[in-house]
């Protein structure tokens, strides 16, 4: 392979025809022999962690030379690019991003590194998904429109949407949806599904709370004082134990299902909302404002759903001690 014009990740100098070049036997990243021996190892750790192989980082920018340098590996990329062509790093973390005005949003929903927590099927298509700009289309809709609707964490969701819409990934992993599905759905304005999941969560919570309140040791640890635990005959029956077990399993299955399918549900809802907006206006400014208003996140929805769950829990406890 001809590496002339590519850059050594150690010294950042471009390779010449006469250079003595070696490549990492694991990921294929090229180095000057002297640079590789000086570092003592391949410094392209992200590729090793992800299991990917190095691909050409040579810029395909227009002849006017407008390029963006990757903050991680130093490779030059077209100024319209979103991800580095060499290592996949988001190119605009420390400046205003192309899709919204907030430079402090994390590339991933949970704040971790871009190569972590990608859902199943992501790394099979990441080589192609890296070369994405605002005009790239996913099922006939431009990435810019998806990003305007998503708002925060657009880099994370664009990756997921690419995997689902372009490459047919059936499941992807969303960590917040695993641990807090009944709240996260309202946070992402998925109200219809959020109500359903909230009701299931509330139903599953009832036998767990009753079981907890019937245990004096649990009351002591919760309230820090001796409280008289009430013992109802029904709470000691096999039927109640069975209900408690089923409710726990139901809650666990629902959480796993939401974690694996939320991104697909969110992708489908995003497509529907964007197409609806496009059907009502051709004005780019009005379209963008409508997408931002419909999408994004809702802190009010998050606070309201958490408050309702706390009030529901408190109501069960009050009812238990009064009867």
Strand fraction equals under 5%
Topology, number of strands: 6
Fraction of residues in H or I helices:
40-55%
Number of helices: 12
What is the global morphology?
elongated
Average pLDDT rating: 77
Q: Name the poorly predicted regions.
A: 57-64, 94-130
* Main sheet strand line-up: 1-2
Spell out the helices and strands N to C.
Answer: EEHHEEHEEHHHHHHHHH
Give the radius of gyration.
Answer: 26 Å
| Count of the separate structural domains | 3
The N- and C-terminal alpha carbons lie at a distance of 79 Å
Architecture overview:
- The strands form 3 sheets. This protein has a two-stranded antiparallel ribbon with strand order 1-2. Strands 3-4 form a two-stranded antiparallel ribbon. Strands 5-6 form a two-stranded antiparallel ribbon.
- Residues 57-64 and 94-130 have low confidence and may be disordered.
- It folds into 3 domains: 1-54, Herpes Virus-1 (2-Layer Sandwich), CATH 3.30.40; 71-173, no CATH class; 176-322, no CATH class.
- With 323 residues, it is mostly helical.
- α8 packs antiparallel against α10 and α10 packs antiparallel against α11 (284-294).
- It has helices spanning 33-39, 45-50, 122-129, 143-150, 154-166, 175-179, 181-187, 191-213, 216-223, 238-280, 284-294, 299-322; strands at residues 21-23, 30-32, 67-69, 76-78, 137-138, 141-142.
- It is built from 12 helices and 6 strands.
- β3 (67-69) and β4 form a beta hairpin.
């Amino acid at each position: 392979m001809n590496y002339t014009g590519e850059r050594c990740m150690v010294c950042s100098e471009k390779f010449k025809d006469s250079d003595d070049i070696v490549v990492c036997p694991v990921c294929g990243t090229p180095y000057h022999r002297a640079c590789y021996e000086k570092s003592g190892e391949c410094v392209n750790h992200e590729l090793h962690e992800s299991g990917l192989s190095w691909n050409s980082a040579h810029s395909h920018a227009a002849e006017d030379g407008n390029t963006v340098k990757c903050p991680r590996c130093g490779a030059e990329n077209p100024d319209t690019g979103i991800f580095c062509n060499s290592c996949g790093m988001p190119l605009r973390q420390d400046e205003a991003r192309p899709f919204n005005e907030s430079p402090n949003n994390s590339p991933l929903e949970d704040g971790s590194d871009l190569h972590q927590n990608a859902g199943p099927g992501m790394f099979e298509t990441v080589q192609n998904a890296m070369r994405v700009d605002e005009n790239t289309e996913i099922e006939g809709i431009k990435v810019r429109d998806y990003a305007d609707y998503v708002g925060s964490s657009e880099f994370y969701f664009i990756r997921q949407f690419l995997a689902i819409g372009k490459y047919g990934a059936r499941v992807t992993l969303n960590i917040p949806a695993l641990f807090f599905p009944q709240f996260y759905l309202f946070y992402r304005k998925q109200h219809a599904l959020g109500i359903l999941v909230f009701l299931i969560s509330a139903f599953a919570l009832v036998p767990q709370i009753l079981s907890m309140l019937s245990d004096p040791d649990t009351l002591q640890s919760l309230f820090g004082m001796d409280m008289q635990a009430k013992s109802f005959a029904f709470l000691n029956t096999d039927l109640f134990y069975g209900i408690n077990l089923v409710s726990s399993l139901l809650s666990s299955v629902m959480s796993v299902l939401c974690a694996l399918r939320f991104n697909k549900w969110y992708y489908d809802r995003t497509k529907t909302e964007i197409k609806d907006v496009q059907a009502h206006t051709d004005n780019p400014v009005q379209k963008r404002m409508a997408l931002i208003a419909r999408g994004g996140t809702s802190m009010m929805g998050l606070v309201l759903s958490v408050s309702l769950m706390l009030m529901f829990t408190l109501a069960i406890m009050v009812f238990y001690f009064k009867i």
